[in-house]
Write the structure tokens for this entry.
Amino acid sequence: MKRNGEPEIRVGFYVCHCGHNIANTVDCAAVARYAATLPGVALARDYKYMCSDPGQELLRQDIQEHRLNRIIVASCSPLLHEHTFREATRKGGLNPFFFHMVNIREHAAWVHTDRREATAKAQALVHAAVRRVAHHQALQTKRAPIHPAVLVVGGGIAGIHAALTLADAGKQVFLVEREPSLGGHMARFDKTFPTLDCAACILTPKMSRVGSHPHITLWTYAEVAKVEGYVGNYEVTVRHKPRYVDASRCVGCQDCIKACIYKEPKFPDTFNAGLSKRKPVYLPFPQATPQVVVIDPETCIQVKTGKCKQTCLEACVDRRAIDFTQRETLERVTVGAIIVATGFKTFDASRAPAYGYGVYPNVYTALEVERLVNASGPTGGAIVLRDGRQPERVGIIHCVGSRDEKTNRWCSRVCCMYALKLAHLIKERTGAEVFNFYIDLRTPGKGYDEFYGQLLEEGVQFIRGRVGEVTDWAFMPEEEGHLVIRVEDTLAGYVRRIPVDMVVLAVGLEPQADAQAVRRLFNMSCGGEGFFLERHPKLAPVNTFTEGVFLAGCCQGPKDIPDTVAQAGAAAAEALVLLDRGYLEQEPNTAFVLEDCSGCKSCLPLCPYRAITIAPETERAVINEALCKGCGTCVASCPSGSIGQNLFTDQELFSEIEGLLAPAAAT
Amino acid sequence: MTTFAYYPGCSLKGTGRAYEESLLPVLAALGIKLEELADWNCCGATAYMAVDEVKACVMASRNLALAEQLGHRELVTPCSACYLVLNKTKQYLGESRAVAQVVQRALGLVGLSYQGNVPVRHPLDLLVNVVGLPAIKERVRDPLTGLKVVPYYGCQLVRPYATFDDQDRPTSMDRLLGVLGATVVPYPLKTRCCGGSLTGTLPEPGLHCAYILLKEAVKRGAEVIATVCPLCQFNLDAYHHKIAAKWGPVRVPTVYFTQLMGLAFGLPARQLGLHRGLVPFAFEAGARRPEREVVPPDRPPPATPACRAGGPLAS
Amino acid sequence: MDSHAPPAPAPWTPRIVAFFCTWCTYTAADLAGVSRLKYAPNARVIRVMCSGRVDPQFVLEALAQGADGVLIGGCHPGDCHYVEGNHKLLRRFQLLQRLLTDLGLERERVRLEWISAAEGDKVRWAINDMVETLKPLGPLNLPGQQQAWDRELARRAENPEPAPDGPPPGPTAPIPSPL
């Protein structure tokens, strides 16, 4: 096969067995034999593992020995190994873009069962590739500089750890937190399992380090409003919500809180899960970082009506930190990478109505009990019911909103362990009899199962069975006045009714309510359950499908604190890789204008990046390569076919179509 | 006036007469006429289903075939057992070709056939989802203000075939009683067993079921229990002396929700069959609660009896 | 092995050319593979960076080359990696559907599905469903039809019709639309 003025096309074709992964379903030898019959194919081989070093070496040698000038590997997805084989092609002395990859694993071997059909499909895909590569051109990648700063979104333990890791490596970090303080969910916990070290004791030092770190710009009460640009050069717009307090002047003396026109706290304190009250001006919690009060616009009379005596302002007359004229402001920063660590929300227990949350006052969620147990919580750490009594019998229901067809299918991973922790703490502090109702106990982790064993020895009761309902009606006289947990004890084999004073619902973890909006903001994907999707579940667990955007913590899926911190470190490391390399190789798939452009301008409004302009001297369209992202929309839309796209030219795609539909090979 | 086919079932002609006596005028007051199937037969109840499902289906489907013949769009049946059996039969006929063949052959012998076209509805579903709560509210003349009612649905209405409400925590009747002006008492036992036919066969556990329901209703301050099912009404109404002898008195009247609707519509208590209850229930509109607002300001004054919508008993 | 040997007699099943955008639908198809979902082998995928790159000519060319249907997969509206390439495609697709109808082709032969990177199962469904939809329509066989028309034209060229004002003789029906 020869094209005018160009050297003869000599295709080297390789089909990979991928061990048994491909070879079990696709007849690799037949595919290689078929490829050998196709025009331009100088060499066709099948090989056990093409991505292995010997496989790549084979490719390199063949290029030289057989004077190959096109390479095709039929193996797994190009999203996985295209880069590997392009490199091997380059090492063989060829321009890497003379390589093309055929996906016969994910798209054929793994999804079909009939060997004959799968082989025929693989052959068609190979035929398409053979036709395609004839049109390939040598292309050069461009290098784009990477801005040496990172945006971390979310100030929970994941965001905190990632930010500190990056800042300690000397990188500029912008940490954006929606709430008025850092800390996230972890700040609300009392102890952490299984070691029972105090959450505040291990978290607050990290929080204050973030607050004082020279390389970290901390923006609390702020949200990311807009993300533009691309890896290495993200232009991020951050919206600062008005807290009506000048953070640079407030010292956290809290005199304003004492002086507030509301003499007594009146509004539900969200940090304490609504179990206590706060005033319109408040400090989220004692260790809040930054130590700056905030004024709640929903409840502050001055903000709402402008008709308050403003006693808080009087109290702060020296520092003049309170400022009711504050308005929302926008700020723009440029960063090279983004770490998304936006966390989770707990399952809304009222969605499992059988458990009576919101109906019976003594049914609590685990997060509420977490605050009850906490020494800085609403009761100062006393575990008491809403009427002040201490519970004598406590039931902890596992898997509320998890592993349930009616609500969420997934296991939330942390509930078993935090339920055990709460069981231990409740028993230790109140001496109450504690019952755990579980489906399976999942305690895989360092020291986790040992902790479970410890609880068994402490005499915490475990009843295997999904609880049917929590009610307040009495079947037997001794049940009067108690909540009754009705459950099928699947080990004993009968239905039990267990009267208790307090019910704790071990609620599962869910994606944040605005996960979809955040996903769009950063151009990420979500899995079916709504958590952000990693690029690869095993090999790229902190990457997203958008280059330069990384994931950390529970926004990617439920995980405990050790896993969250490990993942945050990994995300920071990935960001460091980008930043320290300093530049980015860009895929040369940009569009270009051909000679015969008539200057009709119909492509201009199609480009979302405004990469196309009309050159005044020629009155033809010109495409700015630096701005073009290579989507190809203008190419498909040009009425005269005068725009081409590298790697995806019309000839390449037309010849793929022809190849796919060429008469089938006999198998 | 809209007409629906009507399958009363045996209870509504016997122990549950008060149900029919109240249902017909209440529906009539809302512009709904029920046309009773001619020559209907026993639905087979749950008992026959337990003995021979196919034969039970044959028996029940005769009523469905009769309803289809009548040509009305839907069949209304107030008894929960009938409602369950007719729906179960429909389900079986749709799912199993074998059952359908036996049934069609049997129906054919008496010159009938069944195409599966008649939806079976409970009056509660009809009232809440077809008539609608606003129309019912509009018709209320003597609101039940302050009357503490426990809504009790029983087991058969919403499990497993009802699609009009939640299977464990139905709210249709709660909402209906609410627009009548009554105070609806939260009652977590609303779909728990009343004892069913056990009260006759194994009295000890059967009556204990009824006792629990009554005790919890009393504990929660209910003045009356509203039911949708003749068997529930019977079990909760008829055994008070036995229950009292065993576990102590738990006296509270149990009436049909349609009787409460009739009262709220201003229909005479006797025409609603309220005299038939063994535990007497009376609600004197306006007499007990001086603070109660008889005529909400946004509504015209009560209609005179002459212009009330006429039902068989009201006219 | 002889590639020109007649294919083994197998019942006809549709041949589908699929254009999948790399960020969502192609990734979803990879996910379907990783999840070992099983689906019909009738669709062959061409990867493009964005569904916005899918030129209507590609679709027509695929049909002309013998495809029985064309499936286009892109990101859900609002989720396009390139902001709104999928919207651009959607506009084009709607025009294309009108054109196909005018050409006498069944609309079901060209199909557009929004499939996100997480929806491996939707890839399986879309392909299986399209195969089932196309089966009753039968082969499109445009190459075969084109050959028949070519032969017809050649025959007419060799035997020009004698009376241009008379009605076309006997069995020769009017030549159907060339697509």
Observations:
- Residues 434 and 537 of chain A are 38 Å apart (CA to CA).
- Residues 347-510 of chain A form a domain with the FAD/NAD(P)-binding domain fold (CATH 3.50.50.60).
- Chain A touches chain B at residues 353-354, 356, 359, 469, 471-475 (CB under 8 Å).
- Chain A has five domains: 11-141, 149-241+330-343+512-581, 255-325, 347-510, 591-645.
